[in-house]
Amino acid sequence: MIAEVVVADWTAGEVAGMIGATLLGRAEAHFAAATTDSRESRPGAAFFALDGARHRGVQFVPAAFGSGCSVVVVPNDWTGEIPPGRAALKVADPMEALVALARRVRATWTCPVVAVTGSAGKTTVKEMTAHVLGGLGDVLRSPGNFNTMVGLARTILDSRETPDVAVLEVGASALGEIARLASLVRPAAAAVTNVAPAHLEGFGSIAGVRTEKLSLFSDLPSDALRLVDGDDPELVAAAEKYGRVTRVGFAEDNDLAPRDLQLDAAGRATFLWREHRLVLSVPGRHQAKNALFALAFAESLGVSPAEAVGRLATFTGVPGRLALLERNGVTIADDSYNSNPRSVDVALSWLVGAATTGRRIAVLGDMLELGTESEDFHAELGAKVAGLGLDLVVFVGSESRAAFAARPAAGGGEWHHVETAEHASELLAGLVAPGDLVLIKGSRGVGLDRVVRALAPAGEGA
């Protein structure tokens, strides 16, 4: 995770005026980097004392000064000491101060900004889009899962100069967050990759998820490109309230659909885009739709079909999102980054269709943040898995007990349930064999990346 970002070379006095802060200490103290992690503070940086789930940011101000930070941004009730030559900026909320500074930087940009959200696939679409747009010059992309207000503010501040294009991922776990993020990002084009049961504890229902995701379109220019999952009629109908939308999907009546779609033995897609054949290097039929989002953004920014297809063919995927690894003859599909009912369906479809000389094995962790419907969703998952004819299934986590309860009485393969990723690693060490194809998928909180590392410690690509 990025803890430090490069920003313009400012003085404490200048920034105090920008963010409405009370200045204590030396007004000429300058900084050329901003950090929210005192452990990685360094001379010439400003430390923003953000509160976390289990601590207050002001606890780490002495450490930040000790590491050489020239400026700290602290809440108004802070009463600590300021070393000679340094400065403290007192504000009502250090996070809002960080965002305000990012807004100042964003206001200077003249480049196009592309924003992507959705219940699944948004990181892959963001990375695909940035990859395709690489020929346009300096592409700023939000790193990792930096799709929150703090993460996006830090991403914007990471650019010392205006990029040629920015591709930013926007996420949310509660109502109202995406509208606030959109006001910071100010995209010129945006996509909602899909809507599915995810973060239901914060959104309450699929309708709530849909409303939240579509709020990314609320402040787009009237002629902006609005991309949506065209295979979801309810999403399309709701999106059209914001203006003209471009429907992306597998159905032929979509505005953009993968023509002559084919899959190879590993489940990698190939299809025609503007009469040019794209051969994807990443597995999964769903990647064809992800690619179409990226191709549509690229076309809108003037990238030729031939160049777009050529660049996208070299896209090698995102770690933790159905990334193929091989170790000791075992092929591992690392989809451990996250999970929800829609994304696990996609992953299982790939597992069933991919060629293998050994067994098909699924390691499925809890799908978290599904609220009161969690047990029902996990029971549905178990019933679905029971009908797939997999050779070995390992469910991981307390929520997954409901899935394991659907275990077939006979003839449905070998099923196990364990409570933790560590238990799953120990179990699988004695079960997998050369030739096996192993899908590992679960929500981040389950930690199935540890299972991936246990089975493929070297992490060699397949």
Structure explained in plain terms:
- This protein is α/β, with parallel strands linked by helices.
- It is 31% helix and 23% strand.
- The chain has 16 helices and 21 strands.
- The strands form four sheets. Strands 1-3-4-5-6-2 form a six-stranded mixed β-sheet. A six-stranded parallel β-sheet has the order 8-9-7-10-11-12, sandwiched between helices.
- Helix 14 links the parallel strand 19 and strand 20.
- The longest helix is centred in the middle third of the chain and has 15 residues, at 286-300.
- It is globular, with a radius of gyration of 24 Å.
- Classification by helices and strands: alpha/beta
Shape field: globular
Poorly predicted runs are 1-6
Question: What is the average per-residue confidence, as pLDDT, rounded to a whole number?
Answer: 92
Strand content: 15-25%
Radius of gyration: 24 Å
Number of strands: 21
Helix content: 25-40%
What characterizes the major β-sheet?
6 strands, mixed
* Termini separation: 25 Å
Task: Trace the largest sheet across and list its strands.
Answer: 1-3-4-5-6-2
Helix run count: 16
Structure described in brief:
The chain is an alpha/beta fold. The protein has 16 helices and 21 strands.
Features:
alpha/beta, 23% strand, 6-stranded parallel sheet, 462 residues
What is the fold's blueprint, element by element?
Layout: E1 4-11, H1 12-19, E2 22-25, E3 30-35, E4 45-48, H2 61-66, E5 71-75, E6 87-91, H3 94-106, E7 113-117, H4 122-132, E8 139-141, H5 149-157, E9 165-169, H6 177-185, E10 189-192, H7 200-203, H8 206-214, E11 225-229, H9 233-239, E12 246-248, E13 259-263, E14 268-273, E15 276-283, H10 286-300, H11 305-312, E16 323-327, E17 330-335, H12 341-353, E18 360-365, H13 374-386, E19 392-396, H14 401-404, E20 414-418, H15 421-429, E21 437-441, H16 449-455
Parallel strand pairs: 3-4, 4-5, 5-6, 7-9, 7-10, 8-9, 10-11, 11-12, 17-21, 18-19, 18-21, 19-20
Antiparallel strand pairs: 1-3, 2-6, 13-14, 14-15, 16-17
